[in-house]
Amino acid sequence: MKLLQLRYYQAACQLNSITKAAELLHVSQSSVSMAIKELEAEFKIQLLNRQYRGFTLTQEGVAFLNQVNILLEQAEQSSEIMKDIARKRNLLRLGVPPMIGSMFLPKIYPVYAKRYPHTDVRIVEAGRKNLIRQLEAEELDMIFLPYDEPLGEEYSCIELSSTQTVFCTNKNHPLAQKAMIQMNDLLREPLVMFKDSFFQNERIIDRFRQCGQMPNVVLYTNQLSTIISLIQNGVASGFLLGNIKDSYPDLVSIPLDPPLAYKIGLVWRKDSFLFRDMSHLIACIREVL
Q1: pTM, rounded to two decimals
Q2: In angstroms, rounded to a whole number, what is the distance separating the alpha carbons of residues 100 and 92?
Q3: Of the four, 37, 177, 206, 226, which is 20 to 30 A from 153 by CA?
Q4: Same domain, 148 and 192
């Protein structure tokens, strides 16, 4: 079984014509027909019901086509990876939630950029669900990820930090003097929160549901700067990571009761090729953090 035979078979099936497949592939009809006959002989099955005009797929032919589609897609991905390796790639596609990005990127990126100036670092800001989806689709190489339970075995992870969510408000707010905050204290509180795809947002809403109510959210946003600005101006209160609130001394942060704790890690797929650019990032993170 050769890739060329599989491509000929796939083209014939997609176009439902050996003649059109040959024209598309710029080969003779006999080359396409012979490739399919060789596959049938190799596996000792009939793939096509040949008719005077055209053909139909046998049941075995349909099953084989499904496998061919998978194999050719994998072959294309492998080809792209090897091309990247051959040209040293010099590309790092990195996903990061906004709050986590503000915690780590100012420390890591300057070191990485100075050490590897020819690497194109493309940073995508999004919530946890979207980042995982893009990692699975191989649209991202690595992602910074919050988690409060073990990640799946399909991922590799370097733990970077432990943190917790804190309630943040203006220093003149009536709740600013409390030592701990429970969700019952916040049932009528105007809040600004990240959108649904953000990990912290899901956990906070779960806490409110346990109280039998939903939070009083006046604005959902993807922008950390918007959340900070609204809290600073007393328009609404919100929730930030304990590590990040130190960057805003004019805000008051109050731990939740019970705590909402989780870890932050750098995550990539175990089955993906660890490009040189990814290894460089891991080395920088271990050095800086």
Answers
A1: 0.68
A2: 18
A3: 206
A4: no
Residues 247 and 284 in one domain: no
Q: Check whether residue 272 and residue 144 sit in a common domain.
A: yes
Do 26 and 79 belong together in one domain?
Answer: yes
3-state class of 50 per DSSP? strand
Q: What is the pLDDT of residues 153-195, one digit of tens each?
A: 999 999 999 999 999 999 999 999 999 999 999 999 999 998 8
Peptide bond into 255 cis (omega under 30): no
Q: What does the DSSP 8-state code read for residue 26? A: T
SS3 88: coil
Tokens coding 26: 């710029």
Domain span at residue 214? 163-262
- Strand-strand pairing, 55-57 and 48-50: antiparallel
Say yes or no: 244 and 271 in one domain.
no
Taking a C-beta distance cutoff of 8 angstroms, is the pair 2, 39 a contact? Answer: no
Same domain, 200 and 258: yes
Q: Which residues of 51-87 are buried (b: 16+ CB within 10 A; e: fewer)?
A: eeeebebeeebeebbeebeeeeeeeeeeeeeeebeee
What are the helix and strand counts (H, E) for the chain? 9, 10
Task: Identify whether residues 202 and 234 lie together within a single domain.
Answer: yes
Overall number of domains in the chain: 3
Distance CA 47, CA 185 (A): 68
Q: Which residues pair with 238 in a beta bridge?
A: 168
Same domain, 244 and 196: yes
40/17 Cα distance (integer angstroms):
17
